[in-house]
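[retry 2/3] RNase H type-1 domain-containing protein: previous attempt timed out, resubmitting with same input.
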Amino acid sequence: MEEERIRLAGLSSAMQVSAHVLSLSEEKKLLIVELLWSWWDARNKANAGEPRRTTEEVIYRARKVTKQLPYATTAAGVQMARTCAPRWTPPPPDIWKINVDAACWAKEIDGAWGFVIRDHQGSVVLAGAGRLAVVCDALCAESHTCIEALQVVADHGMQRIIMKTDSQTLVKALQSDVMDRAPSERGEIHYGDFVYLSGGLACSSFL
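[retry 2/3] RNase H type-1 domain-containing protein: success.
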């Protein structure tokens, strides 16, 4: 996978990353998506105070999940689905659901972003991730992530979306103009930009 890592590192936009990942074989495509998920999960656990995972642990978890996918429809898998609450809620048919997340390192004044777009069956159709060179806080990082995702949505002509973020402050900012009236202290993020980017959508919701 080192060759693919170098190729992805050389791409300049989320759209290019998504297009390249989707052009790969099913095995490589799933592994890359799972690596992104494993990296995101490790970052969340570290932020919550748990021990940092090594690179080897992140890779192992991604490969483990990928190997389990072919057996997801076995009887045991069906039983598990009945007894465990779902961790991801699918959108209605014909609507794309976008899960976004971001990280911010205040001391370094930088961060990272990522998003995954799925259909109502849970199939990943697009994904993107990248670094933020200058970002002052978590809200700013999450805002940049939403903008990146909305730009990809617009580029691919997706008209009906639901965007899910774990930042309730961002959700409130998107549902009102309070943040736009406040002094700009968040890396020149203006929440009216979201209105412009989502203006061409037939249906949009921020959760």
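[retry 2/3] RNase H type-1 domain-containing protein: The chain has two domains: 1-87, 88-207.
[retry 2/3] clearing retry counter.
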